[in-house]
């Protein structure tokens, strides 16, 4: 029997980016969109492309949302995608080859893409993410920036996953605000302890230095500097919200 592949996409008010993502995955046996009760046309865009849409509340827990997708998926293999990612033709070919081989898990190389800028370093440099694996043996942990793991050995596929992460600077701030709120709650739930000085000053300072100097963000010019500052502020807000969550449940 030919192995089957389900693509799982988490969605929330992403109609503007989702169509491009769905157009790149028509090769899959099933495209499953887990919609966090979007108020735009996300669900309609998904259905019109032939995707199966299930509405399920995120509740600030990305791992639980992905696990729901795994439990619901009908295929032998799973490919996780974000609603702003696109599978290139080369990567598509490698994916179809991989699911016909013995069970294994695979990292995909992800390239961040911007309409007017080329960014290759710093906090927005390309990375690799574990996304393709058999359904059996898949596990996801962590409320946000969740960790996907598999019981099968991992290797890397050639070809790129294109990540159209931000349309404008305001969107970076909106995402920063929501993600740091989730991270603050996650830190508090885990009972982790970091001093106020460490979280509010030292860690953000290191975040900037690492993004701009260690990871060579300076090579990306002005945008490299802006994203290094953004990364430092992201780190500051994560610990600020964690401290507020710990002391006052996030209420001033």
UniProtKB/TrEMBL annotation:
Residue ranges occupied by any Glycosyltransferase 2-like domain in the UniProt entry: 6-124
Coiled-coil positions: none
GO MF terms held by the record: transferase activity
Keywords tagged on the record: Transferase
InterPro entries for the chain: Glyco_trans_2-like, Nucleotide-diphossugar_trans
Pfam families in UniProt: Glycos_transf_2
Family per similarity comment: Belongs to the glycosyltransferase 2 family. WaaE/KdtX subfamily.
Protein name: Beta-1,4-glucosyltransferase
Biological source species: Sutterella megalosphaeroides
